[in-house]
Design goal:
about 0% helix, 4-stranded antiparallel sheet, mainly beta, Rieske Iron-sulfur Protein, 3-stranded antiparallel sheet, 10 strands, about 100 residues
C-alpha cells in the first residue's frame, strides 16, 4: 500500500532547484519549477548515474551535470538523441508542504 509522505516545505526547495530525499534504497531528487510545480525523480542519470539533483532545470527537464544529457522530469525519459530512463515518483504540494508518494 503506497502512501503520501510529507518531506519538506515548498519554500525549502529553491525555485528551479532541488533537494534530495534519501530512502533506504535510493536517493530521490525533488525539483521545483518557477511555477511551484514539484517533480520527483531518482537522483541518477540513466547514462553514467550522474546526480540529477546537481543539474540545471529548464522547463520540465533537467540537464545532467556530467555529460549534458537532458531528462524529462515528468516521464523520466532521456530526450533525443539520447536514450534511457530514470524512475519518477508522484509528488504534490498542499498548503505549502511537499509530499512524495512511496
Amino acid at each position: 500500500m503506497s502512501q503520501w509522505l510529507e518531506i519538506t516545505t515548498l519554500e525549502e526547495i529553491p525555485v528551479l532547484g532541488s533537494r534530495v530525499v534519501e530512502t533506504d534504497t535510493t536517493n530521490i531528487a525533488i525539483f521545483r519549477s518557477n511555477e511551484d510545480q514539484v517533480f520527483a525523480i531518482k537522483d541518477e542519470c540513466p547514462h553514467k548515474q550522474g546526480p540529477l539533483s546537481q543539474g540545471i532545470m529548464h522547463g520540465n527537464s533537467v540537464t545532467c551535470p556530467l555529460h549534458n544529457w537532458k531528462i524529462n522530469l515528468i516521464s523520466g525519459k532521456a530526450l533525443e538523441p539520447d536514450e534511457g530512463c530514470s524512475n519518477v515518483y508522484q509528488a504534490k504540494v498542499e498548503d505549502g508542504k511537499v509530499y512524495l508518494k512511496l
